[in-house]
Each structure stands twice: as structure tokens, then as C-alpha cells.
């Protein structure tokens, strides 16, 4: 029903887990790890009875504290994908990197050459750069190709196999280097990879950042507090036990549902909920005409 439900293949994965067709649902799905962005609008809907399917207990508790109705923690779709791919043989070697990515309204300026040098000096080959679709262009790709790297992308946000691609890329590498505290890092920590959150280096005692930060600070105070509360994330290689525990919490491992409960909560077995979702989808298509194909 909501535009971003199909982003990153989240809705499709939940439908696959429940063994049903991928159809509109009466609600919205959290589409990224929630370490900041806590404000009074989180989880709210204007459409009656629409639910907000969040991942972790922290987000759920925050919404309930703000008297937001119809919030249900179900865990990240990535966790369900992991269940669906348990038979996948996870042999791994080398290093995959996730440079800070651009957004549709915020082109990120990133020092790729500096980052490449840092990675090749500190982590083992072979090297792979996973670029967001907005940054997957000839100019950026050539920088990595010229240094002997493999370049991949999971596709645009509407790619129905986005998360499958990301899961595969992470799984086949031993080391993961991220320059943001983004969702890819938490997926990697959940999969017990040797992870590094590296966003700057010191040159002659001066901090040099790999990226130019967004023009707006968003929730910078919340991000700073998160780093302060989880200082182990700043280690060269994040402690594997602490990182797995944190990833389990942020992705909502304890909130995962079995097939029967998930089908019931989402409304796959309810004619009324499925009918309402389709009806509201037509309304949303009309309201956001020209934006339904957002990537």
C-alpha cells in the first residue's frame, strides 16, 4: 500500500516466508535499521487501522511511549530471508566494502581513492565494492576497476531481489568495511562477519573523513549518543560477540514470528484487510501520482 513497502524487497520476502502472493498490505514496514530518527512522527499513519511493522523492541517501545497505535514488532525481513536461505553454503574470503551512498536529494561526495588505499593497507583481498544504485556509474566504477576491485550493486530500491543480492554479497566475504552506521553493517554483524566501521583516517595527526556529510544534520545528536553508548563499534575490527548481540537487538531477532502468526498480523488471511489495502493503494497511487515508481 505504501510506496516504500516494496523497497529493498522487504514485502516480497515476508510474503515468500508466509507462502502467499506478494500483495499490498494494510500498513508500512520499517525499511532500515533505527539507530536515529526518533521523533514524534515515527510509526504514525493517517490511514485508519494501518499498522507500522517495526523491527526491534526499542522502536516499538518508543512508539508506544508516544501513544502511537497499531505498532507491531516483527523483526527485520532480512532475518526471514536468512531463514529461507539456511541451506546456502556460506564459504567466504576477501573484503567487501560499502562506501557512503547518495540519496535522491543528497549526492554524497566520497573520497574513493583515499578509501581504497586505506582498505588495501588494512584488509585482505580480493576486494569488492558494493555501490548504491545512485552511485553505480562509470566514473565511480572505473576508480575501483582500475585498482583491480570487483564492483557490484544490489540494484535500485524497487528491485525485487535487492535483499537477496545483498545477502549473497555479504555472505561470500570474510571482512566487511562500512563507512556509515547503516543497515548493511548490522546485517553483516548479524551474519558474524569481521566488521569494521571506518569513516575517517588520521594523516599527520589530522582527521580526514572519507565522505562529505549531508548538508542537513538530520538527527546528529542521536547518532553521536549511539556511538557513545556503543563505543566498541569504533574498534578496528568490531568485537564479534558484542556486534552479534547488538545486531540481534537492532534487527529484532526476538520479535520474529512463525508463519501462522506473521500471516495473521500482516493480514494475509483476512479478506477485509487485503481488500482495504488494495483500496487504499489506489488512493495512494492517485495522491502520489508520478511517484509510485520511486526507486
Question: What CATH architecture of the largest domain do you see?
Answer: 3-Layer(aba) Sandwich
Largest beta sheet, briefly?
Answer: 5 strands, parallel
Gross morphology is: globular
If you average the pLDDT, what whole number results? 89
In spatial order, strands of the major sheet run 6-5-4-7-8
Number of helices: 11
Count of discrete domains: 2
Short overview:
The protein is an alpha/beta fold and 295 residues long.
Describe this structure in words.
With 295 residues, the protein is of the alpha/beta class. The chain has 2 domains: 3-76 and 254-287, no CATH class; 84-251, Rossmann fold (3-Layer(aba) Sandwich), CATH 3.40.50. 37% of the residues lie in helices and 13% in strands. It has 11 helices and 10 strands. The chain has a 5-stranded parallel sheet with strand order 6-5-4-7-8, with helices on both faces. Strand 9 and strand 10 form a beta hairpin. Helix 1 (10-18) packs across helix 3 and helix 1 (10-18) crosses helix 10. The chain is globular. The two termini are 16 Å apart. 36% of the residues are buried. The model has no long low-confidence stretch (mean pLDDT 89).
